[in-house]
Write a structure and sequence with these properties.
This protein starts with 5 loop residues before the first strand and ends with a strand. It has 106 residues and is an alpha/beta fold. It has three helices and five strands, in the order ββαβαβαβ.
Length: 106
């Protein structure tokens, strides 16, 4: 499996929707970091929704990056929600107890 990862976002009425696709692992650090900074640095963003519908894998480095995003958002009074995590991705989030750290919606 290659590095078929992408992240993009749309913004509507203070909500930034981050669409993550593919395999999210350490090799994608700079791609995700740049996008998360772009989103969290926007003063018009109040809520960040990460859509995991097309995400098929994440590793411990990716989990760490999600925690960094959560911290950056909290510092800026932004909230973060994870949506549509399924299969292996949902299992990984559950094992890591991310439901205690993030709002996770189906």
């Amino acid at each position: 499996m290659g590095s078929d990862f992408s992240v993009s976002y749309t913004l509507q009425e203070g909500v930034a929707m981050l669409q993550l696709r593919g395999r999210f692992d350490f090799s994608q650090y700079s791609v995700f970091k740049a996008e998360q900074e772009r989103v969290t640095d926007r003063q018009d963003v109040r809520h960040i929704v990460m859509d995991f519908a097309d995400l098929n894998y994440l590793d411990s480095a990716a989990l760490g990056l999600l925690l960094v995003l959560q911290e950056r958002a909290r510092e800026r009074d932004q909230s973060v929600t994870i949506r549509h995590a399924r299969g292996l991705v949902r299992d990984i989030l559950d094992v890591a107890h991310f439901d205690r750290l993030f709002v996770i919606e189906d």
